[in-house]
Each structure stands twice: as structure tokens, then as C-alpha cells.
Design a protein that fits this description.
Number of strands: 32
Structural class: alpha/beta
Strand content: 25-35%
Helix content: 25-40%
Largest sheet: 10 strands, mixed
Distance between the termini: 67 Å
Length: 599
């Protein structure tokens, strides 16, 4: 078994150091010698010819080219570039809808050797057991996974109900585990700023553990941003503009610049180029990568590739993904090609496409020409099954019933959730027919049903504005962050078809239109993940995308397919539909029914 918990002290083993010193002197051969390549120096920014000698897990020498040839294994890097392994500072394996083993098998051959995983999706469904399974699932992988303690389970307590509830005591317990490396993104921003006792205890557990505390500071500025940081939060990936990037850099946060919001990256590159240097607090992350994107484009390597395409120097993009990330993690053994550092090394064919020729992790050649050399160890996923605690639903469950005290009204006023992503309150007048609201033109149904067996599973139904005209319905149990059964649709009939298909599958996604099921992606592990091969999951997800594209016309950058998964993220500012109704954490409002009264 790989003992990741001994890192980085494992490099101080006397026998290992002794062997490395002897090899560096030239008195003993290297285990591995990389020759003929140019190294990308993360300290000086140079790209220079040098050879790299490895002993066990350690880089024993970085020396002038063609001066040594004594090694048990010789790797020819001629024409290529040698860099440290890439480090993804914030991500969720579950967002790729595959198991940790399949995730590792996909990203390691592309040059990613370390990830920082927030398993709050598993935590929100299965609680401590879900987080414990996550830590066990990554122990024997060729990918170094630094698992964090989910801080917001649920993300908006009192406004939604997930499958578990982590308070300060639960956080302290998780943080005491040796294979937990810090507090995952703190998303309940209002709770932190207002010193809500629950969030104060959760953050204090992180401070007491002396492990890093990661943030989620979307839209925070001025006094609120200062208060959030003063509470003990150290990083943010929720950038919304170039000005936001600069404000958070000036505030001293570590920036986890994420690839999942591609429309912002060109502006960030320009802002950093105008600054004239890369701050050491800029790191890179993927956050969420859908399975088809992961399969075809990659993970953090794709973020690096796009940043360079948008005009960032390759040396900067790589430094953000290696040395800067290692400094954020407090891992002096990672992120640098230098004597005494850990032998996590990638040989890229070039600095534009970043195609990995060879990947070395912990001194072992783990991938060659885009493929793992050995299949990853797979942990039994049995504990993740059977999480859909919800009975089949009827068509009328997806209609908005007029409250009993105003059933005689011909017209009613209905609260709406206006705009994707940056939501705001709205309202419309609607006709009433047979006791139900008739959705006005320009509105879309959204429904969320509790599926964890903690409270009633009656769908709470609302209306969206600014979501286009829907010609069918989409159902998903991947619905951040409580991951209840969530539906979007133009009519209750298709919503019921999609919902019942997902319930029968044990979780996942489905699309229905014209009274029939168009596509389904079963995700039977926590309703989030499939243990099928990565290619199969990617193909099924592509079918879901295509079927959804056929029933709604997207309007980037906010009305996009990705918006479906964050529409219930109740910790963010503005109204959001949850399994309890329409919630707004900023105003403290929670409407079980969107019907406000007669018109």
C-alpha cells in the first residue's frame, strides 16, 4: 500500500539520502536518467538543456547534458521539455462522474501527478462514510490525491437538506484523520462573514488543525471580502471578472484560477500580462470537468494549454501549475526540478499542445505515450449504491398548486428566479386552471425533490425567467451541492418521464421530450458517479448534452448547459430553488410555494 501520509518526510530516509548523495557524486549509477531534453526551470524561468538523475523517489541530480550515462534506466527526452508534475489545487472527482481510479487513469498519462480533492459531493450524499470511502479509494493510485474535509454539508443549512450535516464537531473529527489535508472550499460565505456559530466552529476546527482552509468567495468585495479572509480563509477559485482577480490578489488570497469558466480566462491572461509578472499566489485548478471534456481534452493539462493559447507564457502557466501550487500546499518536495525534490516529472513533446510523452510519479514511470503502464487499484464501490430514497413521481407533482386560501383566484402573482448564475428575484402574473398555475410565456419550470430520505420527497416547484423556451425536460441528481433530484422543463409530462427514469436508474441524468425518453446516463454510485469505463461514461454524457441541446437554445456565457448543475447552489447570493422551496441566504427568505397571492 502507498503510504501517502508519510510524505514529505519519506524523502528524509537515511538510506535514500545516502544513495542519492552517492549517485550525485558519481560514485553510483542513477536508477533513472533523463537525457537530451530541455528542462523548464520554475525558479528562473529559463528553458535550458539539462539531464535529470533519479534515485528512488528523489531527484538526485540536475546536471549539464551528456555528462553522465550511468543509469539502470535511460529515458531519451530529445526534442522534448521536462517539467515537474502538474498540481491541480482544487477539484471534485465526482464532477467527472467517474471513480477515482478511472479519473487517475485519465489524467495521470496527461501529466497530472497531484490533485487536491474536495469530496463534498460524496459527503453531501453519504456523510462521513462518503468521505471515508474517498480517502480509501485514492491510497493506492498513481495519482497523489490530497483529500480535504468538506466544510459545507449542506452548503446552506436551513434552506436545503442534503444526506448529511457536518457541524464543527464533525469537521474536527474529519480533520483528525491523517489522510485529510485541510478544509475544503468554505461556501457558506454569509455564515462566515456574519460569524454564524455553526460556520465559526467549522472554520475554527480548521484553524485548530493547522491545516489549510480553502475558500469560495464569489462576488465578495470590500468589507465582506476582508471579513471572509479575516475569518481564516486562504484561497478562492470563484473569480467573476478581471477586477475581481486583481482585488483578490491584492487582498492576499491564493488564486485557484479555474478552467471550468473558459470565457473568463482570456481576460485573466491579459490582466496578468499587463501586470508584467506572475504572482506566486496564482495557482491553477479544474474545479469541475465533465466526463466527455475530461476524456477528450484532459484535466489540468487542458487548462495550461488554453492559457498558453490565450497568450500566457508557457513558463508562467507551468509555474502556476507546479511551483506556485506546491508553495500553497506547503509541499517543498513538489513543484520543482531540483536536487532533493520528489521525482514527479513530466516529459512534454512541446509547450503548446502539452502532449505528455512520459510521466514519472514518485520515481516510478507510470505512464508512457498517453497510457498508464499498469491499471489502477480499484476500491469496491458497494458502499456508494442505493442512495435514491424517493418513490416514483406523478405528473401533477411537477405543477405549481395554488394554496388553499386563494383557490378561487383566476390570476395569481408568482415569485420567479430571474437569470441563470447571477440570480435575482422576479415576479409574474399567471392564470390559474384546475387549481394549478399556468406558467406564463417566457418561464421555465424548475423542481427539486429531496432524495436522501431525511425529509419528505415532495418536489418543490418554481419558475425560472431568462432560461429560454424549453421543448422537453432534463432531470439530474448531480445538482450542487445537496444533489437532490432536480428538474428543468417546459411541461410536467416530460419532467415526470425524466424524473422516473433517473429514480429507476439509481441516480444520474435523463432527457425527455414529446412524451418519450431521449437519453439517460445512469450514475448509481451516490447518484453522482458511474463505475463504467471512462469512455462509456463520456459517450453517454455526450448523448445527454446533445439531447439537451435539442430541447433548449443556449445563450452563452451564462445560459449554458453547465448552468443546470449550479442552479440549486443555495449558498450563492440571490434566490435558488431547493428541496425546501425558493431560498435566499442573503435576505433569509424561504418560500415553500412561489405563489405570492391573487393578482
Amino acid at each position: 500500500m502507498t503510504d501517502r501520509n508519510s510524505e514529505p518526510l519519506d524523502l528524509d530516509d537515511d538510506a535514500l539520502r545516502g544513495r542519492a548523495v552517492a549517485a550525485a557524486r558519481g560514485d553510483a549509477p542513477f536508477d533513472i536518467l533523463i537525457v537530451g531534453g530541455q528542462i523548464v526551470d520554475m525558479v528562473t524561468g529559463e528553458i535550458r538543456f539539462a539531464d535529470v538523475g533519479i534515485i528512488g523517489k528523489m531527484i538526485a541530480s540536475v546536471h549539464e547534458p551528456a555528462t553522465r550515462s550511468d543509469a539502470r534506466t535511460l529515458i531519451n527526452a530529445r526534442g522534448a521539455f521536462v517539467t515537474p508534475g502538474l498540481i491541480d489545487t482544487h477539484m471534485h472527482v465526482e464532477s467527472s462522474m467517474t471513480t477515482p481510479a478511472n479519473y487517475a487513469a485519465t489524467v495521470v498519462p496527461r501529466g497530472v501527478t497531484t490533485t487536491v480533492w474536495d469530496p463534498h459531493e460524496f459527503g453531501n450524499v453519504l456523510g462521513l462514510d462518503g468521505v471515508r470511502w474517498a480517502t480509501q479509494a485514492v491510497r493506492d493510485l498513481p495519482l497523489r490525491v490530497l483529500t480535504l474535509a468538506p466544510s459545507c454539508v449542506p452548503a446552506a443549512p436551513g434552506y436545503e437538506v442534503s444526506g448529511a450535516d457536518f457541524d464543527g464537531d464533525a469537521m474536527a473529527e474529519i480533520l483528525s484523520w491523517p489522510d485529510i489535508h485541510g478544509v475544503a472550499e468554505v461556501m457558506n460565505m454569509r455564515g462566515v462573514i456574519d460569524r454564524d456559530p455553526r460556520m465559526t466552529n467549522i472554520v475554527q476546527a480548521g484553524l485548530t488543525s493547522q491545516k489549510m482552509i480553502c475558500g469560495h468567495a464569489r462576488g465578495l468585495e470590500g468589507r465582506d471580502l476582508s471579513a471572509f479572509i479575516a475569518a481564516g480563509i486562504g484561497s478562492d477559485h470563484e473569480l467573476v471578472s478581471n477586477d475581481d482577480l486583481m482585488a483578490k490578489l491584492r487582498a492576499g488570497l491564493t488564486i485557484e484560477m479555474r478552467g471550468s469558466h473558459d470565457h473568463l480566462l482570456p481576460g485573466f491572461v491579459q490582466t496578468l500580462n499587463d501586470l508584467g509578472f506572475l504572482p506566486q499566489t496564482v495557482t491553477l485548478c479544474t474545479d469541475d470537468v465533465f466526463p466527455d471534456d475530461l476524456e477528450h481534452a484532459g484535466g489540468l493539462d487542458d487548462v495550461v494549454r488554453r492559457l498558453v493559447r490565450y497568450g500566457m507564457k508557457p513558463e508562467w502557466a507551468l509555474r502556476a501549475a507546479t511551483l506556485n501550487a506546491a508553495m500553497r500546499l506547503g509541499r517543498n518536495d513538489l513543484g520543482l526540478l531540483a536536487t532533493g525534490r520528489r521525482a514527479d516529472i513530466v516529459i512534454f513533446n512541446d509547450l503548446s499542445d502539452f502532449e505528455a510523452r512520459t510521466v514519472i510519479a514518485n520515481g516510478n514511470v507510470v505512464a508512457t505515450s498517453g497510457e498508464l503502464n499498469h491499471p489502477p487499484v480499484v476500491l469496491d464501490p458497494a458502499p456508494l449504491f442505493d442512495t435514491m430514497k424517493i418513490a416514483p413521481l406523478a405528473v401533477d407533482d411537477f405543477r405549481i398548486k395554488v394554496p388553499a386560501d386563494i383557490t378561487n383566484a383566476d390570476k395569481v402573482r408568482v415569485a420567479t428566479i430571474d437569470r441563470p448564475r447571477f440570480t435575482q428575484w422576479g415576479s409574474v402574473e399567471a392564470d390559474v386552471k384546475d387549481g394549478f398555475v399556468v406558467p406564463p410565456k417566457g418561464t421555465t419550470y424548475i423542481a427539486v425533490a429531496h432524495r436522501h430520505g431525511k425529509v419528505d420527497s415532495k418536489p418543490r416547484v418554481g419558475l425560472l425567467e431568462g432560461w429560454g423556451t424549453w421543448r422537453g425536460a432534463v432531470c439530474t441528481t448531480v445538482s450542487h451541492d445537496s444533489h437532490n433530484l432536480t428538474l428543468f422543463g417546459g411541461n410536467p409530462e416530460d419532467m415526470a418521464i425524466a424524473a422516473n427514469a433517473v429514480i429507476k436508474a439509481g441516480g444520474g441524468m435523463a432527457v425527455a421530450s414529446n412524451g418519450k425518453l431521449d437519453a439517460i446516463l445512469p450514475l448509481p454510485l451516490c447518484g453522482l458517479v458511474s463505475d463504467a469505463p471512462m469512455e462509456q461514461v463520456a459517450e453517454q454524457f455526450t448523448h445527454i448534452r446533445e439531447a439537451t441541446d435539442a430541447i433548449v437554445d443556449w445563450q452563452p456565457p451564462y445560459l449554458v448547459f453547465k448552468a443546470l448543475f449550479g442552479a440549486t447552489l443555495a449558498c450563492n447570493a440571490g434566490p435558488h430553488q431547493t428541496d425546501r422551496g425558493i431560498s435566499d441566504v442573503e435576505t433569509g427568505k424561504l418560500l415553500e410555494s412561489p405563489v405570492l397571492g391573487s393578482a
